[in-house]
Specification:
By secondary structure, this protein is of the alpha+beta class. The protein is 38% helix and 22% strand. It folds into 2 domains: 85 residues, Alpha-Beta Plaits, CATH 3.30.70; 91 residues, Alpha-Beta Plaits, CATH 3.30.70. It has 7 helices and 8 strands, in the order βαββαβααβαββαβα. The strands form 2 sheets. Strands 2-3-1-4 form a 4-stranded antiparallel sheet, with helices on both faces. The protein has a 4-stranded antiparallel sheet with strand order 6-7-5-8. The two termini are 17 Å apart. The mean pLDDT is 93.
């Protein structure tokens, strides 16, 4: 028997306006409906933490995300993209943060963009060179870190630009959220 594995499941593009609303209660219920234990949410922005029982080999990130997406669609009727990240991988991402000063001094403006596929570091470097703003971009552990030096609302760096450069769709979480999800996936 293996130990239980915790995953953070990150929905893309929910609760940002009047469309694609997903309540925390529906998200937790979808985690349970998908067969996972200990379904918990953080903030009302599409963050779910679930535990996979240790009664067999743990499913991969893609399988966890697909099961939650399917259960959420059955519950709400909306197909919302999601990416799952194991607690172990989330710890590696956090440890690889190339912007430690921003994490300490400006965590709300440091975002981590995670996608279902690894981020393309060469295309991100091209975007970084072409971007007119002062944002700092770096790829580590197959995810994109962006420090929005002048604030997110002032940035001209758009989600479509980020996704094109990344080579995959992504969903971003600020450093405070990453730290909270890390604590939730490694508790116990």
């Amino acid at each position: 028997m293996t130990a239980p594995t915790a995953f953070a499941v990150l929905l893309r593009g929910v609760n940002l306006g009047p469309h694609r609303r997903v309540s925390s209660a529906d998200l937790r219920a979808a985690g349970t409906d998908a067969g996972f234990a200990d379904a918990a949410t953080y903030a009302n922005s599409g963050n779910l933490v679930v535990t996979v029982p240790g009664d067999g080999p743990p499913p991969g990130d893609d399988d966890v995300a697909a099961r939650v997406v399917s259960a959420l669609q059955a519950r709400t009727g909306a197909e919302i993209p999601a990416v799952a990240v194991s607690g172990e991988r989330l710890a590696a991402v956090a440890a690889a943060n190339p912007f430690s000063a921003a994490a300490r001094d400006d965590p709300a403006h440091l975002l981590v963009y995670v996608g279902p596929q690894p981020v393309d570091p060469d295309e991100v470097a091209r975007l970084d060179l072409a971007s007119p703003g002062r944002e700092l971009l770096a790829v580590a552990e197959d995810v994109l870190f962006v420090h929005y030096v002048d604030g997110i609302g002032r940035s001209r760096l758009s989600s479509p630009q980020i996704d094109r450069a990344a080579g995959t769709w992504t969903t971003g979480r600020n450093w405070n959220t990453v730290q909270r999800l890390l604590a939730m996936t490694t508790a116990g």
